[in-house]
Amino acid sequence: MHAVVRQIKNECYIAHLEPCQGVGYDCLSLVVAADYGFLSEKHGYMKTKFMLNRNGQNGFAGDDVIRDIWETSDTDAGIKKLANDLIEYSGLSRIEDGESKSVMAGVSVAVTKWIKEQPHNDLCVAPPGWPGGCRAFDPNCNFPSGYDDSLWPTHLGEPYLSLGVQNIEVARVRMTDATVRYTGGNYED
Fold first, then answer.
1. 24 vs 80: which has the higher pLDDT
2. Residue 97 belongs to some domain of the structure
3. In terms of domains, do 18 and 42 share one?
4. Last residue of a domain, one of 90, 118, 139
């Protein structure tokens, strides 16, 4: 996701969506503002540009199925190819010079950094309550209650991701400003 978000001009939101409710096919997805699609109360029309099945092997971008996404992304060259395919097939606009400074780019940097720092393989990164996500939550990771709901489309779920090891939450990333809060209440921007 980071390899895509850092390259695009589009205002976007990283979300976990379930296209077939109750089947367990939760997908890491990219949602953008659009001229048509789902009408959200405070964010206008929104459209899902691509979905990457977290439990399967395929992704969906535009009208195209992208096969073997996780096998492809095992190498740096594969990540670059997958990101380029997702941008092309989704019709996203690419930044000509440099990298995106968007909040979602900051979120993806924070999550990628956290994953790389973990000595464990049994990691979970998901919104609260998603299959395969954290099962035990640390109240020290809570952000102060209340947020400006004009910053995060409520139909995309809670405005944060839980990061955990062996299904136990150890940190949260706030999707509205990319702030990370660790167990014990420590913050990192």
1. 80
2. no
3. yes
4. 90
- Asked if 156 and 78 sit in the same domain, the reply is no
For the chain, what is the domain count? 2
- 188: pLDDT strictly greater than 70: no
**Contact in structure between 18 and 25 (CB atoms under 8 Å):** yes
Give the closest residue to 16 by CA, choosing from 179, 158, 178, 181.
158
Burial class (CB in 10 A: 0-12, 13-18, 19+), 123: middle
CA distance between the termini of the chain: 19
Structural domain harbouring 122: 103-188
Encoding tokens for residue 73? 């992304």
pLDDT in tens, 157-178: 888 899 998 888 999 999 999 9
Question: What's 140's DSSP letter?
Answer: G
The 10s digit of each residue's pLDDT in 64-106 is 889 998 899 889 999 999 999 999 999 999 999 999 999 999 9
pLDDT tens across 107-144, in order? 999 998 988 888 877 888 888 877 677 888 888 888 87
108 in the same domain as 85: no
Residue where a domain stops, chosen among 59, 90, 121: 90
Give the amino acid at 112.
Answer: T
Q: Which long-range contacts (CB under 8 A, 24 or more apart) does 10-14 make?
A: 10/49, 10/92, 10/93, 11/102, 12/49, 12/102, 12/104, 13/46, 13/104, 13/152, 13/153, 13/156, 13/175, 14/104, 14/107, 14/108, 14/175
